[in-house]
Design a protein that fits this description.
The complex is a heterodimer.
Chain A (H helix, E strand, L loop, with lengths): L1 H20 L4 E3 L2 E3 L5 H12 L2 H20 L5 H14 L8 H25 L7 H42 L1
Antiparallel strand pairs in A: 1-2
Helix pairs in contact in A: 1-2, 1-6, 2-3, 2-4, 2-5, 2-6, 3-4, 5-6
Chain B lengths: L5 H23 L6 H35 L1 H36 L8 E11 L7 E4 L12 E3 L4 E8 L4 E5 L8 E7 L4 E10 L4 E7 L10 E4 L11 E10 L6 E7 L8 E7 L21 H11 L1
Antiparallel strand pairs in B: 1-2, 1-12, 2-5, 3-4, 3-12, 4-5, 6-7, 6-9, 7-8, 8-11, 9-10, 10-11
Subcellular location (chain A): Cell membrane
Membrane topology (chain A): Multi-pass membrane protein
InterPro entries (chain A): Cell_shape_determining_MreD (IPR007227)
Chain lengths: 174, 308
Amino acid sequence: MIRFLIPFVAVVLFLLEPEFALFSPISWGDQTLILVPRFVILYLIFISIYYSKKRACLYGLIFGLLYDVFYIDIIGLYSFLYPLVCFVAGSTVKFIHQHLSVTTILSVVLVALMEAFLYYFFSFIQFTTIPVSDFLSNRLLPTIIANLLFLIMLGWAFKYLINARLLQRARDNS
Amino acid sequence: MPHFTNKKLILLLVGTIFLVALISFSLRDRQNASVPEQFIKDTVGFAQFLVAKPANYITGIFNDINSLLNTYEENKRLKMRLEDFAVLQAEVNTLQSENESLKELVDKKDSLKDFDPLKATVIARNPDQWEEKIILNRGSSHGVQLNMAVMTANGLIGKISLVTPFTSEVELLYSNNPNYRVSAMVQGENSDVFGLIEGYDAERNELILKRIDSSFKVKEGEQVVTSGLGGIYPKGILIGEVTEVTTDDYGLTKMAYVKPAANFSMLEDVIIAKRTSVSVNGSDGTGTNADLTNGTESETTDTIEGEE
């Protein structure tokens, strides 16, 4: 059962992302804050760190491709970025302590880096013209805070789910 | 430092070239979806629709609670406006009947104003909001075509930018696309003033109405509606309200900031407007720069289809 639960959760998060995006943009005072939900990639980073780097990269490729085709219409952007982020996250396992708080911070940092890369890509192809300072204050910061809140609420659940799967696999092998 | 063998290096290089080629290939033609793309879009769209239903229901409950809390004040405000409304309604009725009889008199059948409304539900919004895009649950099998106007009860929100059999994408008015233009007019006291909505001001979060003839007077608070002259949108859909009038960058024409009437953040149900009179691929169209006066073969057939 748990075997299928891991990809199933990824699918649910993928479908929930645009629903949460409907709340954005939020106007706060005279500022317009844009929150970008990045649930799928956060979950995939957790899989990459606690479960399997290879599996995370594969899921990253699949969901990245779906994301590209369904929302962006530029094929190759997210289907490259998602596996790359998963790969980088999986590669850090050797160097860092795998505590939940450390993983949470690492995930958010990686998402922030991805967001910055996307900003440069989209300003390169002139889809956006906002200056860097606006990007940092109105987009990046709210996005980081929102995703951090999401991970604080659900990070332990991801870890619990992945651990359950690992236990099950160990039992099957023995 | 990871050890790169020759083989790995070549693989990396080929991969990079493939990626760049793929990105530039898909950037070139974004108005049409290939068959596998359409299949993925429809499948994901269906799953998304199933999720959107309960999600909309839940947000609906929250909205209901919110409006319940404001009931008293809203009621007071509405009662005040009700008296004005009755007067306005009577006036509209007389004008409408007069308009109809006059139209009959001059034997004018189709108007730029007429459109067939098609209701659609928003199933998703592009989660990374670099492009302002929403996805609807109606597609070409329901009669949706490229470039149709999309609006809410409050006003215009955008146009259809891509159609698959069961879903369609809407490019919202807040777009950085330089080819995105809406021919609009300001409803002045004495006469209508024409202009083009071109782009938006990211800082003010308002649309920019450009190319207004400087001899005309535009005042703050006047309403901006679509003019129907662009060839695609029906006439008279509310866009917004003028908030500030200045001169253009070159000082030759005026430009005005327009605050959109529609609320863009919580979109749920929208209306797709299919114009009943002939539509052409015009300035607020695909931005193909096609020769419209001498019209190529394909375009002429398009127009004939539109007439039927």
